[in-house]
Amino acid sequence: MTVFWHRRDLRLDDNRGLERALERSEDPIVPLFVLDPTVLEHASPVRVACLLEAVGALRERYRDLGSDLVIRRGKASAVVPGVAADVGSERVVWNRDYSGLAADRDRAVVAALEDDDVTWESVHDAICHEPGSITPNEGTHYQVFSYFWKKWRDRDKRDPVAPPEADLLATVGTDGDEIGGVETGTLPSRTELGFESPEASLPTVTPAAARTRLETFCDGPIYQYADVRDLPAAGGTSRLSIHLAWGTIGVRDVWAATERAADRAGDGQRESVTAFQRQLAWREFYAHVLAFNPEIVTEDFDPYPDEIPWRDDTEALEAWKHGRTGFPIVDAGMRQLREEAWMHNRVRMLVASFLTKHLLLDWRHGYDWFRRHLADHDTANDVGGWQWAASTGTDAQPYFRVFNPISQCQEYDPDGEYVRRYVPELEDVPTDAIHDWPELEQADRDRLAPDYPDPIVDHAAGRTRAIEAFERARGE
Ligand SMILES: Cc1cc2nc3c(=O)[nH]c(=O)nc-3n(C[C@H](O)[C@H](O)[C@H](O)COP(=O)(O)OP(=O)(O)OC[C@H]3O[C@@H](n4cnc5c(N)ncnc54)[C@H](O)[C@@H]3O)c2cc1C
């Protein structure tokens, strides 16, 4: 028997590790999922709800094929070798995860398997081109996205992998709760795991939902993507991030669908497909950066000679978290996060800039909040996005280019539609006043929307304070 250990690849289709497990195995596969307490320690109600739904769907898919998913709770370094021993497996296969936490866990699992003389294999699956395969001359990872993109774009991509045939999977025993001689185990509920119900309404996180989303997007919206991707009210992005984060869709499937869309593209539409593919490359760029620099989850990627003098201001941090900064587009974004466990990319950049520059609060506070509230949290993208905004990352926003949340609101939400959707206090406020809110006279703010907060910082003063602080950190 071979055990296939699912982690952030909660699907059967386009799963390279699963294919590899089947390829070299003469016996059927026993699929396994482990609820590891170390991973749960870093979880949140949103993430646990997503995880349980995706694992439940994965199990159903195995059951439809006459097999099942073995589910266990416990430390992976004990559970994986334990299940391997119980099913008499000499080989365990999984897909690689590039975060430092996962690497620590995997090292412990490998040590335990090797102690038991069980062979193991980890397979590249989560991205098209694995870390180390697209490198500058000195051979680690690119630090400038545009160079990475050119190589990534021109490199041949693998085709999607077919799902396994039913007869290659271990079948369920006659009493229905055992495969390969081990109990299948139950999937605990959210409350059994000690998590509250998420306050956000979550999208469905299953392979079927992922496929529908991909097909719908590639049937039409992908051709307008370049024009509307920066407009948060338009809803013109794919919303595939949650599926890529949980692995309810394989990246090769996504790539292949975009290539088919490119083949069907009419005049001027090809560029829009390329603009979308470029975003997939950002995801891989950040995965490479994290794989080579696991410490960037807590440390600045590109530290300044002196410490950045981050402020300590709980009140401002709380106002930011709860969408009560008095900057309408920032507040709309932070409220969208709480309501949908997702936020539009342009607004993620804005709220991250606002926290780290206008409020001069440490990016780690923002990362921590996003990690808990985003259903699509992905360590590489999340930390990459935060360090970009904080001007501490790879190919980051220069410290002196501070986003102006007033002009950004005018430019990207010209009709105030996005703001009104998430900030009901401003529903009846004229669009110009929404855009100018932080700079209106106090009397006008009191008259137009007495329940909506005044700005917690002066835009120009906040910008100057940030630039001066970063200059001090640079030793200027
Ligand atoms: C501070 C900050 C934090 C972020 N945290 C995350 C995160 O935890 N998880 C996450 O998947 N993305 C993160 N992003 C990137 C981006 O905002 C989301 O990927 C995007 O908004 C997801 O929506 P979508 O699937 O509709 O994107 P689309 O525009 O449809 O893009 C398609 C896919 O490309 C990838 N992608 C798009 N933009 C980026 C980007 N800037 N960086 C890396 N990959 C990208 C995603 O996988 C996305 O699903 C973050 C960005 C910032 C500025």
TrEMBL record:
Xref: Gene3D superfamilies: 1.25.40.80, DNA Cyclobutane Dipyrimidine Photolyase, subunit A, domain 3 (1.10.579.10), HUPs (3.40.50.620)
- Cofactor(s) the record lists: FAD; (6R)-5,10-methylene-5,6,7,8-tetrahydrofolate
**Which InterPro entries does the UniProt entry name for this protein?**
Crypto/Photolyase_FAD-like_sf, Crypto/Photolyase_N_sf, Cryptochr/Photolyase_FAD-bd, Cryptochrome/DNA_photolyase_1, DNA_photolyase_1_CS_C, DNA_photolyase_N, Rossmann-like_a/b/a_fold
The entry sums up its family as follows: Belongs to the DNA photolyase family.
This chain's protein is named: Deoxyribodipyrimidine photolyase
The family database entries (SUPFAM superfamilies) matched by this protein are listed as: Cryptochrome/photolyase FAD-binding domain, Cryptochrome/photolyase, N-terminal domain
Name its species: Natrarchaeobaculum aegyptiacum
Q: Where is this site: Electron transfer via tryptophanyl radical?
A: W310, W363, W386
Q: Which domain of life is it from?
A: Archaea
Where on this chain does FAD bind? 225, 237-241, 276, 279-286, 376-378
The record describes how the cofactor is bound as:
Binds 1 FAD per subunit.
Which Pfam family would be a valid example here? FAD_binding_7
Gene Ontology MF terms: deoxyribodipyrimidine photo-lyase activity; DNA binding; FAD binding
Please provide the Gene Ontology terms (biological process) for this protein: nucleobase-containing compound metabolic process; response to stress
Q: Does the keyword Lyase apply?
A: yes
Q: Which UniProt keywords apply?
A: Chromophore, FAD, Flavoprotein, Lyase
Show where the Photolyase/cryptochrome alpha/beta domain sits.
Answer: 1-128
In terms of PROSITE patterns, this protein maps to: DNA_PHOTOLYASES_1_1, DNA_PHOTOLYASES_1_2, PHR_CRY_ALPHA_BETA
Organism classification, top ranks?
Answer: Archaea, Methanobacteriati, Methanobacteriota, Stenosarchaea group, Halobacteria
